[in-house]
Amino acid sequence: MRIKVKRAAEVENQAPLITEKLLTTREAAVERGRNELDEQGGNCSVYRLNMPLTKLVLLGSLLEVQDSSQAENWIGKCVSVSLTVKRGSISQGLGIERVLT
After folding, report:
1. Given its phi and psi angles, is residue 82 left (phi above 0), alpha (psi -120 to 50 degrees) or beta?
2. CA–CA dist 26, 37 (Å, integer)
3. Is residue 28 part of a domain?
4. How far apart are CA 34 and CA 60, in angstroms?
5. Would residue 60 count as lying in a domain?
6. Is position 59 within any domain?
7. Residue 78 host element (H or E)
């Protein structure tokens, strides 16, 4: 199994490459990655985003955020979800934890 990981060349403090021969499914490998991110929890910030509900985002999901204000993309973990209904439209609020480097 192969999972492609993008690493930024300019980041000095990158986590080491982790390989696990016993991980044979994508789900298990992604969960292993989540556990590694959780161990780095001291250097994190939670960003709040609101968006229309097109697909419900589940807690613990890994998300790629396209941040146009900083002209960068980053990956974070969903740590909170809220739903709001106003006049027939549904929106979801997300708390996304980002590991700061």
Report:
1. beta
2. 17
3. no
4. 8
5. yes
6. yes
7. strand 72-86
Q: What single letter denotes the amino acid at residue 51?
A: M
Confidence at residue 12, expressed as pLDDT on a 0 to 100 scale: 59
Residues 94, 42: Cα–Cα separation, whole Å: 20
Beta bridge partners of 63: 76
Please tell me which residue, 15 or 95, carries the higher pLDDT value.
Answer: 95
Read off the amino acid at residue 58: L
- Computed from CA positions of residues 34, 65, 58, 26, in that sequence, does the dihedral angle turn out positive or negative? negative
Q: Encoding tokens for residue 76? A: 């974070």
**Residue 54 sits in which domain range?**
44-99
Average pLDDT in the 74-100 region? 90
Is 35 inside any structural domain? no
Which residue, among 56, 58, 51, has the nearest Cα to 77 in the 3D structure? 58
Listed in order, strand segments (DSSP E) in the chain are 44-52, 62-67, 72-86, 89-99
Q: Point out which residues pair with 39 in neighbouring strands.
A: none
Total number of domains constituting the chain:
1
More confident: 63 or 99:
63
**Two tokens at 78?**
């969903």
